[in-house]
Amino acid sequence: MTSRRGFLGAAGGLLAAAGTSISARAASARAAAGTEAFFGPHQAGIVTPQQSHCFFAAFDLTTEKRDDVIAMLVAWTNAANRLSEGRTALPLGDDPRIPAPDAADALGLAPARLTVTFGFGPGLFIKDGKDRYSLAASRPPELADLPRFNGDQLIAAKTGGDLCIQACADDPQVAFHAIRELARLSYDSAELRWAQTGFISKPADGSTPRNMMGFKDGTQHPADIDKSVWAGDSAPAWMRGGSYLVVRRIRMALEHWDRTKVSFQEETMGRHKYSGAPLGLKNEFEPLGLDRNDRDENPVIAENAHVRLANAAENGCADILRRGYSYNDGANFVAERWPPWRQGTEYDAGLLFICFQADPRTAFVKLFGKMAKFDMLNQFTTHTGSGLFACPGGVQPGEYIGQRLFEKA
Ligand code: HEM
Hints:
Layout: E1 2-3, H1 4-18, H2 22-33, E2 53-61, H3 66-84, E3 115-120, H4 122-125, E4 163-169, H5 172-185, E5 190-199, E6 220-221, H6 225-229, E7 243-252, H7 254-258, H8 262-269, H9 306-310, E8 321-322, E9 325-334, E10 344-357, H10 364-374, E11 381-391, H11 403-408
Antiparallel strand pairs: 1-6, 2-4, 2-5, 3-4, 7-10, 7-11, 8-10, 9-10
Helix pairs in contact: 3-5
This protein binds protoporphyrin IX containing FE.
């Protein structure tokens, strides 16, 4: 396993290896302009260094016509490229008698490294037993419905979707603008099913950001990104260079967490709260050292600590690239509790968990299947939303997202 530092270092090494190549020069010119390329061998927004904001949206297809879906994907592709470059749909609302082609809420804002990542849910291939677009035979085995996990309390209105769009940017308005512009292009073919905003606040010193539980989150990354993240050579052509996205909306019982001793929180996580170091160690980026025992021969990092249960080496190399965001939806009054003195207003805040992998069956499902049963963290978390999407390989100019899927089927 490599640390985040190692991961970033490796990415830097790749850039260095590209040397003065055109693509490296183009990448640095784009970075200076605050844009991320939409076109490329992989979709942007997967291994792209994480932006500070995310607007994640899941859509249901309402059309029965395959051509409508294709036309929508063509429109989405063109718009996503335009938005990533920070360009507004033109002409601006010159004619006040008709709706303007752009909501104008992002006029004058920088591109803010916007990335738009598209995913295809199971419902694109088959829904309620119906093969609406003659794609059922092309459903990849990796896109197997997620099982019901222990403790799941999924809300239907925050779960599933035939398609998803993950818009990430360093400006929340730019991210929302992207979703809104894409959604308006698809009013006749798809409707918004659910959406979730998220954010990460990065410390000025470049250290790992903290989640709402106050722990550094994003220390550990897969040792081999190519192997762990991108669909393998056996994948269908349209998924080559693609990845599978699992999203979970995880509410945290913050009121309960805040009354828990720091030592218990650290035991739960398996890391120190302030330094982020593995329990008993000093440096955040040191290996976990899972075989260390204390004086009584008990493991320093408990058997049911989060990082042990989530660790790839402990799970037959099941590895995921986490790219989650904190979410904060304010607070809700919870009235359905008994006795009445347990009723009250509590935060609806937590983690918009997003991860990418080559095969969810041997990655997220394997990891979380065990964690859902044994992880000490479960007493503070509730999974309320979920989704699984196949994110096709990257798009080249002149192509539309998922084109190879529709051409094949
Ligand atoms: C609210 C829920 C969650 C919280 C607060 C949380 C928090 C953390 C923290 C603080 C770390 C240690 C720092 C790091 O390596 O980034 C970590 C590691 C990790 N978490 Fe979570 N996590 C949550 C849910 C999940 C879920 C659902 C999965 C799904 C499989 C997951 C997978 C991982 C993995 C793979 C690691 C790295 C383990 C290693 O060191 O090898 N986490 N998490």
